[in-house]
Structure formats: structure tokens, C-alpha cells
Design brief:
Elements (H helix, E strand, L loop, with lengths): L2 H19 L2 H9 L5 E7 L11 E8 L3 E5 L11 E5 L3
Amino acid sequence: MSRANRQLKKIIKAKTILSALLPARWIRFVKSMKAPDSIIYPHTKGGGMMGRGGEVYRTRPVCAYPKHAKYEGTGDINDAANFECVDLKK
């Protein structure tokens, strides 16, 4: 097997591993080079990051700068669906 073929196999393997580890929105960002408007971040019991540390008790949107998450005024305050990304100037 040539050196180029070995390198290609390593790249394909790395892409497969990254696809399994990274959320789909990040992969779409890398492929399209268009950042998402927000990413939902889960807060977990036990302090783990990205849903790996235990039960998720709260979700929040992380908004693209210069916007920030604002509670819409109704619904569960622990659910990201009840927040919207708004411009800081408004």
C-alpha cells in the first residue's frame, strides 16, 4: 500500500471518529463554514460537561455573538426551548 493510501485511510478513520464524538451541528458547521445561531448546552448533575456527567437537569442555548439567551417569560426556566437568542442592543 502506498504512503498516500495509508494517509487517506487515516483521514477517513479520523473523520469517522470525529463524526461519532462531535454533535451533528458542529459537523455541519465545519462542512458548510456557516456557524449555527445557537447551540443547546446541557447542564448535568455531577458537573460533567456536554451531558457526560450524569442526569441533565437544565438546558440553555449558547447564542452566537453578539446575541444572548433571554427567557421568553413562560414555560419551564430549565428548558432551552423557552429561551430565544436576542441582540444585546434591543
